[in-house]
Amino acid sequence: MKKNKIVYIGLSADTVHHGHMKLIEKARHYGDILIGLITDKALAEFKRLPYLNYEQRKKILINLKGVKKVVPQNQNDYSSNIRKYKPDFMVHGDDWKSGFESRYRRNCLRELKKYGGKLVEVPHTKGISSAALINHLNNVSTTPDIRRGLLRRLIDSKKISRFLETHSPISAIIAQNTEYSKNGKKYGFDGFWSSSLTDSTAMGKPDNESLENSQRLLGINQIFDVTNKPLIFDGDTGGQIDHLDMKIKSMERLGISAVIFEDKTGLKQNSLFQNTSNQLQENKNKFAEKISICKKAKRNDDFMIIARIESFILGKKTQDAIDRANTYIDAGADGIMIHSKAKHPNEIFDFSKKFKKNFPNTPLVCVPSTYNQVKESLLIEKGFNIVIYANHMLRAAYPAMQKVALKILQNGRSKETNKYLYPIKNILELIPGK
Ligand code: SPV
Ligand code: MG
Question: Which end of the chain, C or N, has fewer beta carbons within 10 A?
Answer without folding.
Answer: C
